[in-house]
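Reviewer 2 asked us to include a model.

Predict the structure of this chain.
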Amino acid sequence: MTPESQEFLATFVSESYYYWASVFMLLIHVGFLAYEGGASRAKNVLATMVKNLLTLSIVGLTFFFFGWWVYNAFPLFPLTGGVVGPWTDPASEGVAGEVLGLVQASYPWSPALGPNVADNLTGVFFFAFALFAMTTASILSGAVIERIKVGAYAILAIVLGSFTWVVAAAWGWNPYGWFLTNFGYHDFGCSAVLHGVAGFFALGVLINLGPRIGKFDAQGKPRTILPHNLPLTMVGLMLIFVGFYAFLAACVIFVPGQTAEITIYGTPMTLASIGVNTTMALCAGIVGAYIGSKADPFYTISGGLAGIISVGAGLDLYSPAVVILIAFIGAYTMPFVGAAVEKAGIDDAVGAFAVHGYCGVIGAMAVGVMATGYPQGDGIPLTGFIGQLVGTVVCTIILGFIPGYGVSFVLKKLGMLRVSREEEIAGLDLAEYGLEGYPEYPIRPEVNGAPIPAATRSVPQPSVSM
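Predicted model (structure tokens):
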């Protein structure tokens, strides 16, 4: 085999690796669609599922237009100024040259708008990051079901999925990011960088959005609003688990010319160890949540996700025994956090804050306790508690809670955040689409081409033949 053929084969293998990892990540969105659709009541199932389709589409487009650029542009901002990085445009000078060079380096197509055959990898990296962005916004989606306006949700999803989490990734999940270069921050599986940001963003939105009608009684005590299809929710979470294996595989840096697999931080790891540790986290998380929730089915299946997130930041560093311990603790305590949020008068329909926000903090901070002193390269500070704390606080509060609360507060003041009381009681399926997810009649009755509202439909009387 010639050197050129060997180089092509290495490039093709790496390109294929990220391509198929990203394709399997789409199962996360299949899972979210089923998970949230099952968790809603029957009168809101279509609206919930359509919102998930819009999440994927809207965030995918906005990530293309500016999200990917944000990740590449601001790894050191605000410590050393604005646009930084090893990119320059030889035809321009100064900041203009850096910006043009960055744009050319970030987007993988030629000026002729055809495939850039000189760059096989930037495109699949974009593909993987776009799926990460969609996943981040989907975490918000479940928390706010059954009462948020579609337009308001779209705005919030764009802010979260294509901006705030992308800034967190530029700072904390980037070899140039100042979390790493200044504090030694380590977050392999994006515990705080993705889940922490999304969970705390959702918490800020929920405070302004308010609870679903009937969630709390006159004394403020929470009532249980049961999913209309708990088995579908459980199947959805199983699909999310499968997608998470692909998500974590896409966190491995595997490019031509390397002699070993590494993380985004340049530290050694193996795909095999990720497989073992992810499986142990999933198993320990389910057991921990089963015990902690006293066998509640919803919290039990959510425990698998809680376990993986609780060890995500250090998944590449831990032994399986450490993974089992941390995943069990995170998932065991997760239902108590969900109950505390509910007791505070906040209606988090799927426990997004407990699973993603709380367990994201556990995951990032566990590295500062269990893996403190780990070396990450020449000139890079050792991992430590303070470094992990700085990154976690910035992700959860500055890039998570504050933007979520602020944007939703503005939307609320403008009357754009929540549907009307009448629409919520009737159900969003009828209010938004004029359809029922589970129609009673196979033919939808209409008057002058307009569907008859379900509340005014008369029950058809059976014909009697003599």
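Confidence is low (pLDDT under 50) at residues 84-92, 95-100, 455-466. The first helix runs from residue 3 to 39. We have added this to the supplementary material.
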